[in-house]
Amino acid sequence: xxxNLLLKIATKGNTNYKNKKxxxxxxxxSGIVGIIVNVTLFVLKLIVGIVVSSVAVTADAFxxxxxxxxxxxxxxxxxxxxxxxxxDHPYGHGRIEYIxxxxxxxxxxxxxxxxxxxxxxxxxNPEPVAFEWIPFILLAVSxxxxxxxGIFNRSLGNKIDSSSLKATAxxxxxxxxxxxxxxxxxxxxxxxxxxxxxxxxxLVALFILYAGYSLTKxxxxxxxxxxxxxxxxxxxxxxxxxxxxxxxxxxxxxxxYGPGRTMASIHAEIPANIDIMTIHEVIDRAERxxxxxxxxxxxxxxxxxxxxxxxxxxxxxxxxxxxxxxPFIKSMHDFRVVGKGDKKNLIFDIVVDTINLDKVxxxxxxxxxxxxxxxxxxxxYNCIITVDKHY
Length: 391
Description:
By secondary structure, this protein is α/β, with parallel strands linked by helices. It has three domains: 2-224, Cation efflux protein transmembrane domain (Alpha-lytic protease prodomain-like, Up-down Bundle), CATH 1.20.1510; 227-304, 2-Layer Sandwich (Alpha-Beta Plaits); 306-391, Alpha-Beta Plaits. Helices cover 62% and strands 15% of the residues. The chain has a three-stranded mixed β-sheet, covered by helices on one side. It has a three-stranded mixed β-sheet with strand order 4-5-6, covered by helices on one side. The protein is elongated.
């Protein structure tokens, strides 16, 4: 209920989360709430850590301080990512959001390394931990706040599809586990003189390092260029195939320049004998409508396909039979016959799944095998084959 109330205040009741202004407001909300909660928890845990002389509690306190700094970076990241496109950055600044998430992950790892050192020193030079009920209860209550913060950021991250907020949520949920372990170790110190505090400090630091590593891995992927969402691929292809005269699609390429800044290009197969003005109107309309519906910028390339002659239909059917029995080939497209007389060229593309590329001796060998099989049936045809990779 509190999440919905804060969200309603930040967006003034507007639920169009694809709108850049609304999206930025949600990002700012996450950052401000994160700063307030994490600074409060830092002060609380630092006082508790000093009172009970626990390095594990102190480590957890500074982990919260790094989370507060992360929230500041989140706000800065959203602010910079919202800058409009310019001459030097024609596709906008959306990827800054990924960079801010990467900085957050590095800060988390830095805290982890620092407290491994501190905790090992505590193991080598143990000091007694003074258990007291009030600090113990305060730590237990802090778990509830961190759990809510994780759920809060996860909800916001899902609404605006933000890797930065999802990373922050993951970090917060990890902190719930870390603080829980610290609370258990603090309680256990009542019953043993064993320097459990130092060992728990190392454990906490390792969890912090793992959280930082996971965040780094998640945020590097879109910066390097990860594979597009399979559902988005299906939506683009199925949407385009729903238009009149579009008989096939292939070579879909999707580039992500940050949330809400996706560009895509695709080849659409059309009958070669169709009126050019008619199909141009269809392609233009498809580009506009699909771009709007899927919140991306789509460019469609037309591939005229001759399918109205008996020769083309017959030889295409023969080629389909040949590639059907090759387990490495997913599909064929852009099939056409060029030339006259006894010597003609068969020009087409085949699609090979990347997971099978290592099983293919070479692309040239694959093309030679197909060409030989076709030549055995129809010696008059020379094959010109292009191998496309399906990712």
